[in-house]
Design a protein that fits this description.
The protein is α/β, with parallel strands linked by helices and 386 residues long. It has a domain of 201 residues: FAD/NAD(P)-binding domain (3-Layer(bba) Sandwich). It has 11 helices and 18 strands. The structure holds flavin-adenine dinucleotide (FAD). Flavin-adenine dinucleotide binds next to helix 1, strand 2, strand 12, strand 16 and helix 7.
Length: 386
């Protein structure tokens, strides 16, 4: 059997794209190398703007089948200093990614997509007008291939779109989920400013767990690990509890990359669509999955896809990188009396779509407050030569 579209990877980008295509009647195959449901290293914060992308029935079904924690409070802390914003409407939800991705995948299956887990994509070849996709579970034929296979995308490599992201294009984050009763937490979503260049820590309050982590530039990995260990010790009620931290990589958006050619498209992390300042990726994974589905349904081209993605994301991604650069080590924020503005900015980052822009005003405010930036050379390079 030949499929219309084969999607490699069933994270938010792949599963949501599969759902959108399958419900329009296309024959869709999704492959994932992991056995589902699978663990996924993540903060588990699904922003309000990401929830808006999802079809309404998703959130309804989520409430029935799984448990999530709605967030009404944003907290910024640095050392002993703290500022917070309480809202009547939620700014997002905290989920377990294992459950979130499982439900997205099951909705794609309900709409008619075929899902094969434990099936690893190896390479593909072009056979006349369709692709032959070679996997650990056999060979499949398909008109389109979508690489939704994350930061180390093999589809990108095999199709010649990209070998790998460079070190200086990547963020690194260390995190873990800890049972609530073991942790000192403040409720809501807490962003913690540490002495790390362009990075921060977080403490997100889930239903019966807390997700704690630290992220920053991959080049600064030693400092990130150190800061994560210190944060853990600070937040654990019993300092003797042993917590296993895991590190993962995030590709920062902000550069125009080639993310599609012929009938091969990259989405989500595989396309490098992550907000460098906030580390948010799920909104961009879902949105790029939605865009690519529309492009295929309208029989548009790889160029159309790239244009639509970059029209939506690129300006905001660039400002987001600029924000990371001008703020430098974010623990300065409280010293400069800039915390309230930043609190409002976090609210906007979580709730407003990028085309409506949340970074411009913030950067203007930073300039007025006379921040002394720390310029990481390679990030400047990425901005200038994008
Ligand atoms: C520590 C950390 C915390 C984060 N916290 C947040 C957060 O709180 N909120 C937020 O919005 N974003 C967060 N992000 C970013 C977010 O996790 C990603 O942007 C998001 O997972 C991207 O989704 P995706 O579908 O593109 O890729 P992924 O979720 O990475 O899914 C890729 C899938 O492809 C599969 N795959 C890979 N290779 C193959 C292959 N060869 N064959 C078959 N299958 C394959 C994998 O098994 C995986 O299931 C965080 C990232 C990190 C590292």
């Amino acid at each position: 059997m030949k499929y219309d579209v084969t999607i490699i990877g069933s994270g938010p980008a792949g599963a949501y794209c599969a759902r959108n295509l399958a419900e329009k009647g296309l024959k869709v195959l999704i492959l994932d190398k992991k056995k589902f449901p699978r663990e996924k290293h993540c903060g588990g914060l699904i922003s309000k703007k990401a929830l808006r992308v999802l079809k309404e029935d998703f959130v309804k079904e989520y409430g029935v089948k799984k448990r999530y924690n709605p967030i009404f409070k944003i907290i910024l802390t640095s050392g002993e200093r703290k500022t917070f914003l309480e809202k009547n409407d939620s700014v997002g939800i905290i989920v377990k990614r294992k459950e979130f991705d499982e439900l997205l995948t099951s909705q794609a299956i309900d709409k008619g997509a075929i899902f094969m887990d434990g099936c690893e994509y190896q390479f593909h070849t072009l056979n006349k007008s369709y692709y032959e996709i070679h996997t650990t579970k056999g060979t499949f034929s398909s008109d389109y291939i979508i690489g939704a296979d994350g930061v180390f995308s093999r589809v990108a490599k095999v199709s010649g779109l990209r070998q790998s992201f460079r070190n200086w294009e990547m963020g690194m984050a260390v995190s873990c989920e800890i049972p609530k009763e073991l942790v000192i937490e403040k409720g809501g979503v807490e962003f913690i400013f540490l002495k790390i260049l362009g990075g921060m820590g977080w403490c997100f309050s889930g239903t019966d767990f807390v997700n704690i982590g630290v992220g920053g530039y991959a080049l600064d990995s030693k400092k990130i690990l150190l800061a994560a260990n210190e944060l853990m010790i600070k937040r654990l009620k019993n300092k003797n509890n042993v917590i296993n931290l895991r590190a993962s990589f995030l590709p920062a958006g902000g550069r125009k990359r080639t993310i599609a050619k012929e009938k091969v498209f990259l989405v989500g992390d595989a396309a490098g669509l992550i907000d460098a300042f906030s580390g948010e990726g799920i909104y961009y994974a879902l949105t790029s999955g939605k865009i690519v589905a529309e492009v295929i349904l309208k029989n548009q081209t790889a160029t159309d896809y790239e244009e639509q993605c970059y029209r939506k994301f690129l300006n905001e991604f660039r400002l987001s990188i600029l924000m990371s650069i001008v703020l430098g080590e974010r623990n300065n924020i409280f010293k400069q009396g800039f915390d309230k503005k930043l609190l409002e900015a976090f609210d906007k980052i979580l709730t407003i779509a990028p085309k409506n822009g949340c970074y411009k005003e913030l950067i203007f405010n930073i300039a007025r407050h006379g921040f002394s930036p720390v310029f990481p050379y390679l990030w400047i390079k990425s901005l200038l030569f994008a």
